[in-house]
Design brief:
By secondary structure, the protein is an alpha+beta fold. It has 18 helices and 20 strands. The protein folds into two domains: 267 residues, BirA Bifunctional Protein, domain 2 (2-Layer Sandwich), CATH 3.30.930; 112 residues, Rossmann fold (3-Layer(aba) Sandwich). Helix content is 40%, strand content 19%. The strands form five sheets. An eight-stranded mixed beta sheet has the order 1-5-6-15-14-11-7-10. Helix 1 packs antiparallel against helix 4. The longest helix has 20 residues. Homodimer.
């Protein structure tokens, strides 16, 4: 050892370490959702972690170093690259680069890590896994409907019971039509209205009314400038957001009565009506996908239909207190994104959810898949001289598809058994000198021991038929271990 300063062991803020249980849970979610997406005819695509900074679009650099919102570095050719902050911007670049050779429409899904150089906080990370599905090249509202139906089925496949989440759908053209009828044509003012409405769930109607008008001062005293609508204009917007009804067709009727028959508003209504018909044909009712005029989505690149998945399950925090989880995913139509590269409008629509957030939501609702991650069968090491025998045993088990390891620490048998239990091993294999000489092996059923220690009393027959420890012929090892694993399910 030297006297040199030692670094403090610490993870960077906004980055988390995940062990086997978390990884296994998220992999199960991705496997189940991917199977749904592929059944709908979407192909998998993986783009690189880095994109040129100017291709990302949302965080275009306005200084010598484009590090606002993204993690960026300069290549040896002096071009700036940045870690992708979502999976949609890389898709737009890929489509523009390969459009001539792609099937059209191009239907793809993707999942992977994304990075955002933003202030971390509770539930807000700088690195997380997203899962996206998009259709590029179809302007039909039915393409939106398929994305919505697929999102519904994908979330249910991930572990959400039917009726425990709902996709809320709106169309940006409806609000645009309403604002046009009110004489609002300035794009910055429109964006201010969208951002105000997007806070409806958090601030309520009166808080949003202030943001639609002159502005709002929050609890800390900070003032947010408003969109500058008149009182009548703010009333019209709030009346529009409150036009939801239990059924999709009833909601459309109420919206039509509010927006006043503007050309763009009528176009949005027609698109929602087509989405309604397609969803009905796909068997997706209003309990799983509903129209909600208050959904606008914050990103300004959406051009038509927008949708957001809301969790309805009762959820609790770590202290057992009831909490509202809210949105677990969203998306919409973005017909202008590919045009940044090509100059030509290319229709596109998609849905995205954060895998870690969905996993957290499922856990909070008590719906985690699988439970504890199973560990390997552990072969107890009694003697260094008998290591070849121990490795023959793990070789047999591994060849049979059973995870296994020889204990390679230097501890007592008691400590080794504690290790096996901590690894959630289904069984421990004991191979002493006498057993080796006699061609025998002793198996300790750790699953049974855990069940008994947990006070399992409702399956007496199951317990009586399972010896806690048995010595058998070496040739019966694999079958006996497999029986223990299969009994646990």
């Amino acid at each position: 050892m030297t006297d040199a300063p030692r670094p403090e062991a610490r993870a960077p803020r906004g980055f988390v370490d995940r062990r086997a249980r978390d990884l296994a849970f998220e992999r199960q979610i991705l496997a189940k959702v991917s199977a749904v997406y592929e059944r709908y005819g979407f192909e998998a695509l993986d783009t690189g972690a880095l994109e040129y900074a100017d291709a990302l679009g949302k965080f275009l650099p306005d200084a010598d170093r484009p590090n606002e919102g993204v993690f960026a570095l300069q290549d040896d050719d002096e071009q700036w690259m940045a870690l992708r902050y979502d999976l949609t911007a890389p898709l737009a670049r890929f489509v523009a680069q390969n459009w001539e050779t792609l099937p059209k429409p191009f239907r793809r899904y993707a999942f992977g890590s994304v990075w955002r150089n933003e202030k971390p906080g509770p539930g807000r990370f700088r690195e997380f896994t997203q899962c996206d599905a998009d259709t590029v090249g179809s302007a039909r509202p039915e393409a939106d409907a398929e994305i919505i139906a697929m999102a519904v089925e994908g979330l249910e496949a991930a572990g959400l019971p039917t009726g425990s989440a709902v996709i809320k759908i709106n169309n940006r053209k409806l609000l645009n039509g309403l604002l046009a009828a009110a004489g609002v044509t300035d794009e910055a003012q429109k964006l201010g209205v969208l951002r105000a409405v997007d806070k409806l769930d958090r601030l309520g109607p009166e808080g949003v009314r202030l943001l639609l008008g002159e502005g709002r001062k929050d609890e800390s005293g900070a003032f947010t400038k408003g969109a500058g609508l008149s009182a009548a204009g703010a009333d019209a917007v709030l009346a529009f957001t409150a036009a939801g009804a239990s059924g999709r067709s009833e909601t459309l009727d109420k919206i039509a009565a509010v927006i006043g028959g503007s050309a763009e508003g009528d176009e949005g209504l027609a698109e929602l009506a087509a989405i309604d018909r397609a969803l009905a044909s796909l068997g997706v009712g209003a309990d799983r996908a509903m129209f909600d005029p208050s959904i606008v989505r914050g990103l300004e690149y959406y051009t038509g239909a927008v949708f957001e998945a809301e969790l309805l399950l009762q959820t609790k925090d770590e202290k057992g207190n009831a909490v509202r989880f809210g949105s677990i995913g969203g998306g919409g139509r973005y017909d202008d994104l590919v045009a940044r590269f090509t100059g030509e409008r290319t229709p596109a629509t998609g849905f995205s959810f954060g895998v870690s957030r969905l996993a957290s939501a499922l856990r909070a609702a008590g719906r985690e898949l699988g439970g504890e991650t199973r560990g390997p069968v552990v072969v107890i090491a009694f003697s260094q001289d008998d290591m070849p025998h121990y490795f023959q045993v793990v070789g047999e088990l591994r060849s049979a598809g059973i995870p296994a390891e020889v204990y390679l620490g230097g501890s007592s048998m008691k400590a080794q058994m504690k290790y096996a239990d901590r690894r959630m091993a289904p069984a421990a294999i004991m191979l002493g000198g006498d057993e080796i000489a006699a061609g025998k092996v002793t198996i300790k059923d750790l699953d049974l021991g855990r069940a008994l220690s947990a006070g399992v009393t409702d399956n007496t027959e199951w317990r009586e038929q399972r010896p806690g420890q048995q010595t058998i012929d070496r040739g019966e090892l694999v079958a006996a271990v497999r029986k223990i694993i299969e009994a646990q399910g």
